[in-house]
Design goal:
Chain A: One of its GO terms (molecular function) is polyprenyldihydroxybenzoate methyltransferase activity. The complex is a heterodimer of chains A (about 300) and B (about 525). Chain A has one domain: Rossmann fold (3-Layer(aba) Sandwich). Helix content of chain A is about 35%, strand content about 20%. The radius of gyration of chain A is 18 Å and the shape is globular. Chain B has two domains: about 250 residues, FAD/NAD(P)-binding domain (3-Layer(bba) Sandwich); about 130 residues, D-Amino Acid Oxidase, Chain A, domain 2 (2-Layer Sandwich), CATH 3.30.9. In chain B, about 35% of the residues lie in helices and about 25% in strands. In chain B, strand 5 and strand 6 form a beta hairpin. Chain B starts with 7 loop residues before the first helix and ends with a helix. Classes of the chains: A alpha/beta (about 300), B alpha+beta (about 525). The interface between A and B is medium-sized, with 20 and 22 residues.
Amino acid sequence: MSHFTRRGLLSLPSGLRSLILGRIHAAPTTSLPQPRYFSTSSAFHSDHSSVNQDEVSHFNALASSWWDPQGSSRLLHLMNPPRHDFIRQCLNSHIREPGKKLRYLDVGSGGGIFAESAARLPNTHSVTAIDPSPEVVSVAKRHQRQDPLLLEQGRLSYRNCSIEELPLPTSAETAVDVLTVFEVIEHIRQPAPFLQACLKHIKPGGWLIGSTIARTNTSWFTTKLMAEDVLGVVPRGTHDWNQYIQPHELRAWARTQPDVDAEFQGWQIMGVVYVPGMGWKEIPSSEDWGNYFFGVRKKQVEAN
Amino acid sequence: MASIQYSPRLVRQLLQLPPSIRRSCFSTAATPSKPDIYDLVCVGGGPAGLSLLSSLRSHASTRDLKVAIIDSQDLTTSRVANDPSAYSNRCSSLTPASLDFLRNNGAWRHVDARRVQGYHGMEVWDGVSGAKISFDPLEAKGGLLETIAELVPGSRFQESVRKGDVAEDPAVMATMCENQNVTSGLLQRIKEVGGVEMLDKTKVESIEFGPEPEGETGLDLSQWPIITLPSSRRLAARLLVGADGANSPVRNFADIKSDGWDYNQHGIVATLHLDHSFAENNLRTAYQRFLPTGPIALLPLPGNKASLVWSMSTPLATKLKSLPPSDFATMVNAAFKLQQVDLSYLLTHAGSNLDIADELSWRLPNTSTAATGLPPSFPNIAAVQEGSIASFPLRMRHAATYTRDRVALIGDAAHTIHPLAGQGLNLGLADANSLAKQIVYGVEHGMDIGSTWCLDGYNADRWAANNAVMGVCDKLNKLYRTDSAPVVFARSLGLNLVNSLSPLKGALMGAAGGK
């Protein structure tokens, strides 16, 4: 993996990233479950990208099945509606300017499952979607062509790059209201610098919203053993369980960020569980042992 | 073309151009015009298709969808007859769930209420054994009735006593309404909300997928159904809805198989005049008797009118239809009132020189209602409305699936049910309701409403449910079409048992009503 840059991986869609990570995990790791530290002092390589190239290769290989209804991305498709419900929950926790259309940045957009859906919503101004895997981005662009709505000027733009490579917004107005990292963090070796890079693109009062998996015995059992090895609903090697993050670890990191409001309504969380035959269901408190959504709000006024 | 001279050099240069440009040089005239893009195109302007559109137009999330409906008939003229003394022979028994749906999408206000008749109870009895069951919503609200009703072909009142559905008149089990009255209400509602492009008096010329895209960028409609109209106008549909009836062209386009069988039976329908007229606030009852030749049902319409549905073998139907109207009316009385052996004799000899009225007048006084199970409230049929006797073949068809990428089937395009169960219209409205809900959910979550991700929920919601109803109707039809003694004994035992166990009836009604 060393000869790859990591940025490719980070820009991959979250689903792909998960898949890629799983492959990494297939190589024996000896580490025991330990806390993940978000401190930026940990080795963050000079390659200036959060992307894990093994993940990029993994998701490149999966690109063609991205939009296959019965393919390996099925669980991701089914998870998409709860993403919107959760985003609405976050946005509705604070007063907003009525009728103001939203700018989205989807990091790790994959085949575009979330990016397309966000771009179709009537209150969306624009969606920028980035992913480090060129194959995956070309799948996303090809699929975008099948919907005339998504071809409208400025509605949905894909870029094959990492968050570090994306030019920073020139003003608060062009920064985004919602930055999404769905099923991404678990594929990233150094989440803290990655999330900090994301924050720079969000306007004051905007949201960093994502989903990931808690690092517990349950999540190892469901996402590694059952999903990948036994049931095979997720390609083997998709997840690296050691990279899973606990909700309290995320929140602890958010509290160290001066421009983030991680208290009260500025911190949102929702645990979801996949119920075969019923899809993803919200289960209160399941965030501590399974898949969960999180949202942190950037402070209304920038901290100096 | 032959008149134009190309220099060899020009031809050579042209050939070096990429194929797509070459084509555009030569075939601009032959290239069909760009299709108009629609979010939803519905083929078929019957109750299912119209109710889907009026639902979508009435919901805030789906109001902005670009929608069109195509029908070969004229959808602008009101199709309700104005003659209060004449009723169409095509009536449906609307369940409270159907009525709720029509109220919620705003169409029921436009239905002519004077031509609608609710009924409050149903008498069902076995033509061979006389065993009976009465359904009375006042006795046990919300339950067993429906369970049994679903099991009885011709009962026409599935889901009839649902709690919360019966806000207007809690005692109403189901509501008789002419199909054209429903259609007219829906059309007026669509006119009221606007925004639906009505392509009526228009045949669908062809449906095919869009062309393979040329080049690496730009719109790719190769997975979109493109509908061509006789005017050469073309419509590209994000979602193509087939509400186009039993021989659905949309279903054929989607290559969805529809399996089933014919019963070699016909259903006779007619509008009947009763010998006394009911007031608007009278409690009304529907009647159904299971005869070995097939079930016969009498469903109330306003005043002294009633709707007949009677199924029988095709030759017998042909014979009965050829009877003089007065003899036909007498035959209907006989079919409800006489013992099986007498009725059999009349059916066999009808059409010969037999004086049917005379036969009935001497046989009836010698028939014990205890033996036939005839309910005391059963009215006398006085006459048949002129020209109202019609028949249609009974068949069962069920599409293998209701959805494909960018295609959804609703109503008769998805299923043709044994018509005597009277569930056809109800099932079609339930399809439309379910599909509308899926589309609303899809729009609110940014889905492509033509994608399987959006449509899967509709298929999951309706296919299995319809399959169950159809299977039960089919099995019961077979069960009741026999007069073999053990079967008659078993089925009469079933009816009597259920009827005598009021608590069981209530519990069943509750279970079915609470879902």
